[in-house]
Specification:
The chain is an alpha+beta fold and about 130 residues long. The chain contains 3 helices and 7 strands. The protein is globular and about 30 Å long.
Amino acid sequence: MAAAIVVNEGRVLMVRRRVSEGQLSWQFPAVEVEPGEVGADAAVRETLEETGLTVAAVKLLGERVHPKTGRLMSYTACEVLDGTARVADTEEPAEVAWVAHGEIPDCVPYGLFEPVQDYPDEALDF
């Protein structure tokens, strides 16, 4: 799985799933990596498909086995190149939101992978 961590104008892009996976309801744009594809490319592709935003991969933040799903996750920091965030794929996300860094725990109550938690601070120069 690959996830895009998109920070823009002081907020982080999150999508709410139509169907929760356990405690997972809100998440970063994320997708299975296709054969021959690298995680960063999958994260960029899925962000466009789910939200209509064209983004570019900036750097790999890290990888881990997700503690709730058991899936190997790759987290890529991305920057917005073009577009306005919206629900672009009517089958997967139910809602798209720009979330303030301090509000992320409300969306992800079980905590974030530390490099992902630290990235918005770094991106915003806090």
